[in-house]
Amino acid sequence: MKPKLLILTAMFFAVNITYGQSINFRFNNYVYGWQRIDTLSNSSSAKTTHLRGYQNYLFDVNSGKWTFNALAQTEEDIINKVDKGFRYRFYNLYVKGSNLFDLLDLKLGRQNLFAGVGKGTLDGLHLKIKSGENKEYQLAVFGGIPAPSSYEFENFPKLKDNFHFGAQFIYYGVKDLMAGLSYSNKKQTPESYSTIRLDSVFNPVTREITLDGPSEQLAGLDINYTYLGKHNFYSKVYYDIELKKLYRAEINARVAIKDNLRAFAEYNYREPHFTYNSIFWVFAYSKYQELQGGLDYSFDNGIIAYGKVGTVLYENDNSVKVQAGFSNANYGFSFIKYMGYAGESDGISGYYQNQIYEDILSASASVSYSRYRLGDIYETDKVNSFSGMLGVTYRPMPQLSVDAQGQLLINRIYESDMRFLIGFNYWLFKKF
Questions:
Q1: What does the pLDDT look like over 339-351, one tens digit per residue?
Q2: What does each C-alpha distance from 229 to 253, 258, 259, 266 come to in angstroms?
Q3: 342 and 372 in contact (C-beta within 8 Å)?
Q4: pLDDT, average across residues 85-92
Q5: Pairs from 79-88 (Cβ < 8 Å, separation ≥ 24)
Q6: Is pLDDT above 70 for 11?
Q7: Strand 245-258 relative to strand 231-240, pairing
Q8: Are β-strands 137-146 and 163-171 bridged in parallel, bridged antiparallel, or unpaired?
């Protein structure tokens, strides 16, 4: 399968060799260090030191109507190995053709899926057909195997036990209007495993556990409309066909009262939506609704001030959230307060970032503090939590930058916890 895919990719680029081509490559490498309590030691003060490296790779090649995209990550333990000590993940690895025959977009390989209720990472095929005078009718269909949670390329399940397919139809009929209908059918069956169980006379015996995985069918409606380029209205409704229940609804409106004053209002309906074999089914859960509204104002110097109030309505209780603050491109400050069933909390946070030497050296810092108490069932005093971050970025040339960052966390779980991160980034972009 892999050689065939490589040959197909080479043919795509050979056919489009006469078009302009470009390469975009980004690579960064970070080393992250921390200490944690050694639970295997008899001493309560024993700690282990960990040092782990992370590498991220972004690679795009464009040739005419075709592109090859890859996004991957590797990580390895440098000090104190945990589990396998090395992992790799491919988040994206696909070939894409755009506007083929003036009506078709195509993606083949591992890709992130955004198609109404059809969401997730898919190893498969995604086609979008566009028609109409202004391409106002668009039909997307997709199908394949859900990517494994490890994002590795091994131990692929059988297609009959694990698949995901669906479609989304989108209509762009009126200027600034988008309306979409979507359908998703996903089936995921966990692998069988062996374990020890007791038989009828309480003798331990080995049993093979085989779980079923019925398909999950969802349907959804998305509508987005922008009036005069400054008022926006958005709504979505998602329905679980198998369980016959509405599990998500949202209405969102944002209007411009004046050129620098805007108001917004939101309504959300949520019912927890778990996959069939999720452990979260063992917990009691209930639906809830959320209402929120607020204002934001833009000053001439670029600062945006905002304030909003929201309430969450549970079946027999409620909680309230109040937030206010200001921000611009270099700094910001906010205050947030929670009251009611979800707990009580007062918190502040702020950040600052600026260039010390233009395009060469910049610094950033952030702090947050909260004083909180979990809901009414926990009759405890309020506790304090603090976190802070200080970092610098050095860029000796446009393609290369070096980052250093320190983090401090103080709360009742980690009396004090300090971490550091050091890394570098390299970026290459070339047209030929």
A1: 988 788 999 999 9
A2: 13, 13, 12, 20
A3: no
A4: 91
A5: 79/33, 79/49, 79/50, 79/51, 80/48, 80/49, 80/50, 80/51, 82/50, 87/150, 87/152, 88/152
A6: no
A7: antiparallel
A8: antiparallel
Q: State how far Cα 253 lies from the chain centre.
A: 24
Place of tokens 């909390």: 345
Let me know: does 295 contact 263? Beta carbons within 8 Å.
yes
Phi, then psi, of 38 in degrees rounded to 5 = -85, 100
**Residues belonging to the chain:** 432
Closest to 310 (Cα-Cα) out of 295, 322, 296: 322
Q: Where are the beta strands (DSSP E) in 18-79?
A: 21-37, 47-63, 66-79
Long-range contacts of 17-21, Cβ-Cβ distance < 8 Å, separation of 24 or more: 17/63, 18/64, 19/63, 19/64, 19/65, 20/64, 20/431, 20/432, 21/61, 21/62, 21/63, 21/64, 21/431, 21/432
Q: Mind listing the pLDDT tens digit for each residue in 310-362?
A: 999 998 889 999 999 999 989 999 999 999 887 889 999 999 999 999 989 99
State the average pLDDT over residues 302-312.
96
Q: Which two tokens stand for residue 165?
A: 């397919």
How many other CB atoms sit within 10 Å of the CB of residue 145? 18
Q: Which residues contact 255 (CB under 8 A, 6 or more apart)?
A: 230, 231, 262, 263, 264
Q: Are 19 and 99 in contact (CB under 8 A)?
A: no
Q: Where do we find the tokens 């795509």?
A: 12
SS3 content of the chain, % helix, strand, coil (to 5): 5, 65, 30
Q: How confident is the model at residue 414 (pLDDT cuts 50, 70, 90)?
A: low
Q: Determine the Cα–Cα distance for residues 107 and 124; give it in Å rounded to an integer.
A: 8
More confident residue, 380 or 216: 216
Dihedral of alpha carbons 374, 378, 382, 386, sign:
negative
Query: 282 by DSSP, 3-state: which?
Result: helix
Which residues, in sequence order, are bridge partners of residue 96?
67, 107
Residues paired with 198 in a beta bridge = 204
Give the pair of three-digit tokens for residue 47.
């700690």
Burial class (CB in 10 A: 0-12, 13-18, 19+), 213: middle
